[in-house]
């Protein structure tokens, strides 16, 4: 059974500590877009979220030195970097014709 990378106990502790430190240090605006951060509610576009500076897909770790707090919208937009381009599929022609 697969496990969630962001559901691990280690990540949850790092995430909570990063958000606590950001709030205690007076971070009130997203460093990326300058929108006011909401520390009270989650799942809102301006909710404070812990973000990997170097994504896991590129070798990043779940440590405080690799985490920044940004708004949810910027975090979701950032994702793991560049969006993947869809490759054009090869057109498949049937080998036999079926008369209708």
From TrEMBL:
SMART domains: HNHc. It comes from the Bacteria. Keywords: Endonuclease, Hydrolase, Nuclease. CDD domains: HNHc. The keyword Nuclease applies. Pfam families: HNH (PF01844). Residues 80-89 have a biased composition (Basic residues). Residues 78-100 are annotated as: Disordered. Residues 15-76 form the HNH nuclease domain. One of its GO terms (molecular function) is zinc ion binding. InterPro entries: HNH, HNH_nuc. This is HNH endonuclease. It comes from Brevibacterium sediminis. The lineage of its organism: Bacteria, Bacillati, Actinomycetota, Actinomycetes, Micrococcales.
């Amino acid at each position: 059974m697969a496990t969630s990378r962001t559901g691990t106990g280690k990540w949850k502790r790092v995430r909570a500590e990063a958000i606590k430190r950001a709030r205690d240090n007076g971070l009130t605006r997203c460093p990326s877009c300058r929108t006011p951060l909401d520390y009270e509610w989650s799942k809102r576009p301006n909710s404070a979220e812990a973000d990997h500076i170097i994504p896991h897909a590129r070798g990043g770790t779940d440590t405080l030195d690799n985490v920044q707090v940004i708004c949810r919208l910027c975090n979701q937009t950032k994702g793991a970097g560049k969006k993947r381009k869809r490759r054009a599929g090869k057109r498949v022609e049937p080998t036999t014709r079926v008369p209708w």
